[in-house]
Design a protein that fits this description.
4 strands, 125 residues, four-stranded antiparallel beta sheet, flat, mainly beta, single chain
C-alpha cells in the first residue's frame, strides 16, 4: 500500500448515527483536527489557499482548475475535490469520469468507488 504523507481523510458521507471519524486528527469531520475552520492550510478554512472561494487551488471555487486531488487507500486517483462542474476531473461534473453517479471510478457512485465499504478517500494538495 502506498503511503500518502500529506493526506487528510476526507469525509464523503455522513452516517445516520452522526460523525464518521470525530476523533481522528486527519478527518475533516473533526472540528479540532483537519476539519478546523482555523487551520492555516485547512480545507474548511475560508481564508486559506485550499478553502477560499476565490483561490484557484480551492475546492470551494467553482472556477478552480487546480483543486486538491483525491486518492483511495490503494493509491488510485479518484479525481479532484472541486465544485467546478466543467472540469473533466471534478467530482462535481455529473458527466465526467469522477463525478458521474454511474461511473465505476466516481466517488458519487455508491456501487463503485463511492461505496461505503470501499475504504477511505484521501485528499492530496
Amino acid at each position: 500500500m502506498r503511503t500518502i504523507t500529506a493526506s487528510i481523510v476526507l469525509l464523503l458521507s455522513a452516517s445516520a448515527a452522526g460523525a464518521v471519524c470525530p476523533f481522528d486528527p486527519n478527518c475533516l469531520d473533526n472540528p479540532y483536527g483537519a476539519g478546523s475552520p482555523y487551520k492555516p492550510d485547512g480545507l474548511m478554512n475560508p481564508y486559506s489557499d485550499r478553502g477560499s472561494p476565490y483561490s484557484n487551488n480551492s475546492w470551494t471555487n467553482p472556477y478552480a482548475t487546480n483543486a486538491p486531488k483525491l486518492y483511495d487507500e490503494q493509491g488510485n486517483y479518484r479525481g479532484r475535490l472541486s465544485t467546478n462542474p466543467f472540469d473533466p476531473d471534478s467530482t462535481s461534473n455529473p458527466f465526467g469520469r469522477y463525478g458521474s453517479p454511474s461511473s465505476p471510478d466516481s466517488i458519487n457512485n455508491p456501487f463503485g468507488a463511492g461505496s461505503p465499504f470501499g475504504g477511505n478517500i484521501y485528499v492530496r494538495p
